[in-house]
Design a protein that fits this description.
This protein has 539 residues and is mostly beta strands. It is built from two helices and 44 strands. Helix content is 3%, strand content 44%. It starts with a strand and ends with a strand.
Length: 539
């Protein structure tokens, strides 16, 4: 006979029926049917989310009240409907209840409602009060936890009197123990297995001799499982706490108690992305003692990182390319400290490239000969260094890597922008470009000087064609006075200056109108200047 002792699905309903028969429950506390509440009574309703493969016939919901010192009493129970809905009817309005799921599904367990969006808890004491009437009590089944392993007994162990019992006891918040499951063992099988344990509860294991009270002589020292020892221990305080799946355990049954040892049951685990700037966290691992004192250290390629002694660590540029490990040292009074290390991370990758939160901008007139100035923009990562690269038509301009750029002939008619690259040690480079602006021709201006002359002398008119960014304009200068016009060629070699001699004039004042017409080459880069008027005095 090798089986797990658990309550059957009829047990809950049977308790309610027995209470009614004895007259210890009011009629309103009878098992609910899922239908509407009777007159004068309140109801609690909601939904149980049914995972794939779980039959609604295997899921029951009950309402319990605290009848201290007699414990929790079941006041209503119902099977959930096919869609997971339930109604606990005929409850007392204004009374606080605990709502509990009982699951007979193979791989899922129930628990007690602990609030909207909160996983089910293991005990009614941990649950939250639900005051009737209440609706929208939505709950979700939990995946079961299994604790299993094998056991060994002394060579002279006498199986004749019968099996012994492995017991899984739940540890309450106040430290008290409650038997949750029992497993009979015998000489035909050396295994034990506790299924359908609650994933958010803590358990200890105990071995009990003569579980049926036959009265035979003790065959071993009854006690608790403490992983890592050759035998059971006497004190539940030092028993190994199991929370979550624990399979493959080896339990030694001996005639004498063993001494507890400090040992890692589960090594620490580093969580987080191995990327510069990200924060890694390390779990404490699991230990043969419930609450040892823990100290942390972080290592870079096996070498301790100065000052990194917390349970979390933010990766720095110094970590780039290295593997990071966390080391946890557990200490219990009177025992030698024990250290366990996590697996190393992948090699630390560069941090995410800085991102421009404000794009760079270009200020200044986009015209030949003018100077443009770039702003650095704003970046998502602090402490970045910025570099500039000016672009013409989207392509880098050779040597144009300053914050400012003076526009050249090659830029006329093209679109010019700046690309700012943000860099920081340990991070990928980020880049952002400004809007592109089309570069216009340079503006030409005429400067004219006409000195007064004596009659019958030829006046000289000095004309300068000034163009920013274009030092050698060429074309034709025309000077009109009265109805006559004098022309002169402005050669590129003259660097924008030409002297025009007028014919001999009689005394008087002459209004001169000076114009410049650019050559075909100059016209590509220079706008036509406005005519300039001056007065020439002939005395």
């Amino acid at each position: 006979m090798n089986h797990v002792r658990t309550a059957g699905r009829s047990g809950w309903a049977a308790l309610v029926a027995l209470a009614l028969a004895l007259g210890t429950l009011p009629a309103s506390a009878s098992a609910g049917t899922g239908g509407p509440a009777a007159d004068g009574a309140a109801a609690i309703s909601g939904t149980v989310e049914l995972p794939s493969g779980v039959r609604h016939e295997d899921i029951y919901v009950g309402a319990f009240v605290d009848r201290s010192p007699f414990g929790w009493w079941s006041m209503a129970s119902t099977q959930v409907a096919a869609d997971g809905s339930f109604t606990l009817a005929e409850l007392e309005a204004g009374t606080d209840y605990r709502v509990q799921i009982q699951s007979y599904a193979w791989n899922h367990v129930g628990g007690v409602y602990a609030g909207a969006g909160v996983p089910l808890v293991a005990t009614k004491e941990e649950g939250v009060a639900v005051t009737a009437p209440a609706h929208g009590i939505d709950m979700r089944l939990l995946e079961q936890v299994t604790v299993s392993g094998t056991f060994t007994v002394p060579e002279d162990f006498d199986w004749g009197p019968g099996p012994f019992l492995m017991v899984a006891e739940r540890v309450n918040a106040d430290g008290t123990l409650v038997r949750e499951q029992s497993y009979y063992t015998n000489q035909h099988r050396d295994i034990f297995s506790f299924r359908k344990l609650h994933p958010h509860a803590t358990y200890v294991l105990r071995a009990v001799d003569d579980p049926d009270g036959v009265g035979f002589a003790p065959r071993f020292a009854e006690g608790y499982v403490h992983v890592g020892t050759d035998g059971l221990i006497a004190d539940a305080t030092h028993a190994t706490r199991f929370r979550g799946d624990a399979e493959g355990l080896t339990v030694a049954i001996r005639s004498e108690f063993a001494t507890p040892v400090l040992k890692a049951l589960r090594t620490p685990e580093v969580r987080g992305r191995a990327v510069v700037g990200e924060t890694l966290d390390v779990t404490s691992g699991a230990w043969t003692f419930d609450d040892p004192q823990l100290a942390y250290a972080w290592l870079r390629d096996g070498v301790a990182i100065a000052g990194a002694t917390g349970s979390s660590y933010t990766l720095t540029p110094a970590d780039l390319g290295a593997r990071i490990t966390a080391r946890v040292t557990a200490t219990v009074a009177g025992l030698t400290p024990v250290t366990a290390s996590s697996d190393p991370t992948a090699r630390v990758a560069p941090g995410a490239a800085p991102r421009a939160t404000v794009a760079p901008k270009v200020t200044g007139a986009a015209r030949l000969g003018k100077r443009l100035t770039a702003s650095a923009g704003s970046w998502s990562t602090s402490g970045v260094k910025v570099a500039y690269q000016w672009l013409r038509g989207g392509k880098a301009i050779k040597g144009a890597t300053s914050r400012t750029y003076t526009l050249k002939k090659k830029d006329v008619g093209k679109r010019v922008s700046v690309r700012v690259t943000a860099s920081k040690a340990g991070y990928d480079d980020g880049a952002s470009s400004s809007a592109a602006t089309k570069v216009k021709k340079a503006k030409a201006k005429l400067a004219v000087k006409a000195k007064s002359v004596k009659a019958r002398k030829r006046a000289k008119v000095v004309v300068r064609v000034k163009v920013s960014g274009y030092a050698k304009p060429a074309g034709t200068v025309r000077i009109k006075y009265g109805k006559k016009t004098v022309k002169a060629k402005l050669k590129a070699s003259a660097k924008g200056k030409v002297t025009v001699r007028l014919p001999k004039l009689t005394k008087g004042r002459y209004k001169l109108t000076v114009r410049f017409t650019a050559s075909a080459k100059t016209k590509k880069y220079v706008t036509k200047p406005k005519a300039t008027k001056v007065t020439l005095r002939v005395r």
